[in-house]
Design a protein that fits this description.
alpha/beta, five-stranded mixed beta sheet
Length: about 425
């Protein structure tokens, strides 16, 4: 019937005409004849065993490959595949797999979406499978290779190192070199790793600033501004001891008053524990530190004043560093709505800073322990505790073992007994 194309010739066998037409229109299916069963039973059984063994080998190889893919976390739905050869190889493998599977099967195994698969097929017929994200035919408005080289030379040229990248883009337009937006320049500089020739030369800075050798030898005083949530300001004055980093006195004021500095200096002087020479006060040149009231205090011999970066070369950085810690580690983590809340929060932090928080420069001692000389044994205690903790950690880890380790130890013990 398939040879003649006439569905009527099978009518004598009782086959309906519609069924015969369906046979003609459908795909040809191979017919299994009874000749297969004419072979010897032993021969058929040997062939079946051979095929079963081959199936087991292929299944083992597939399991190993799948385990390797999972271990390497290779997933095409999460990873780009820019190389054209790799894509072509996958497409050929998918074509071969379609002899036994539908297209959906290989795509699910490879985690490859149908849209991506058909995109690769179209790319195979057009520009090739290699990623061409800047193909001149697909994006004709892109920059040419000569324009990109010109941009690179201008970005990396010492002649234009003083020109910011955004302004360099406009300068290139003024010079008639490259007409591209500043955002394009920023994008290419970032993606291609172009470096501006800006090797900064800084003066040599001391690694260690001024350091006192005893408490109440060197004090630092300063004032900082703290903004409240309603955009009003409060002023915080403080004095820190250079030797111990202890906050000796502090004061919160709603207004900037030069008398606040004098008040906290008198408070610090009354609480000083050193009976030696008058302490040296390091301050900046602000009006709260250089005024008639402070001058009278200095002339009385109670203190000596040194202006940072004027009388000496070092700055007032110690208390500036404490301001940064106070604000960013504590104050800015709370609601600063009134001067009273700032005063309360500052009191809590100063107490913790002086008595609870160990300073890294003092091998675990707090500022109070350094100031009052009460923590000499703490570094040795911490070192001894560290050694003890390490020994306990080793003992715990060595005592914790799996069944394999236990069996190995038993075997070694039996071997030693037998020897």
């Amino acid at each position: 019937m398939r040879t003649t194309g006439n569905p009527d010739i099978v009518g004598e066998f009782g086959v309906p005409r519609s069924t015969a037409i369906g046979w003609l229109c459908g795909d040809y299916q191979p017919v299994v004849s009874d000749k297969l069963f004419d072979r010897d039973h032993v021969e058929l059984q040997a062939e079946v065993l051979k095929l079963q063994q081959r199936i087991r080998k292929l299944a083992s190889v597939i399991c190993l490959l799948l385990a390797l893919i999972r271990a390497l976390d290779i997933r095409l739905d999460r990873r780009r595949l820019p190389e054209g050869d790799a894509k072509a190889g996958l497409l050929r493998a998918i074509d071969r797999a379609q002899d036994a599977l539908s297209l959906r099967g290989p795509l699910r195994i490879l985690r490859l979406s149908p849209s991506r698969y058909y995109q690769w097929r179209r790319a195979e017929q057009a520009c090739g499978l290699d990623d061409q994200t800047s193909c001149p035919r697909s994006t004709p408005t892109q920059l040419t290779a000569d324009e990109i080289l010109t941009m690179k030379s201008m970005v990396e040229s010492p002649e234009y190192r003083h020109v910011p990248t955004g302004r360099l883009a406009i300068l290139a337009q003024r010079l008639g070199q490259v007409f591209a937006a500043p955002t394009t320049w920023y994008k290419l500089v970032r993606e291609r790793g172009w470096r501006r020739p800006r090797h900064r030369i800084h003066p040599v800075k001391p690694k260690t600033g001024v350091r006192a050798s005893a408490p109440d030898e060197l004090w630092h005083v300063d004032t900082t501004i703290i903004k409240l949530v309603d955009d009003t300001k409060v002023y915080l004055h403080a004095v820190i001891d250079n030797f111990s980093r202890k906050i000796l006195a502090w004061h919160v004021a709603k207004k900037f008053e030069i008398t606040s500095t004098v008040a906290i200096l008198h408070e610090v002087a009354r609480g000083a524990i050193s009976a030696g020479e008058a302490p040296t006060l390091v301050a900046d040149g602000g009006v709260e530190n250089v005024n008639a009231s402070v001058d009278d205090l200095i002339e009385s011999g109670l203190l000596r004043r040194v202006l940072a970066l004027k009388d000496v070369t070092f700055s007032n950085s110690m208390i500036e560093a404490w301001w940064r810690t106070l604000k960013h580690h504590w104050l800015y983590l709370n609601t600063l709505d009134t001067a009273e809340s700032v005063r309360r929060l500052t009191a809590l932090y100063v107490e913790a800073h002086n008595t609870e928080i160990p300073h890294s420069a003092f091998w675990g001692q707090t500022p109070d322990e350094m100031y009052y000389d009460r923590g000499k044994d703490i570094p040795m205690q911490l070192q001894a505790a560290k050694t003890q903790a390490r020994a306990a950690r080793l003992a715990t880890n060595r005592a914790t073992s799996c069944g394999l380790c236990c069996s190995g130890a038993e075997k070694n013990g039996k071997a030693r007994v037998a020897a």
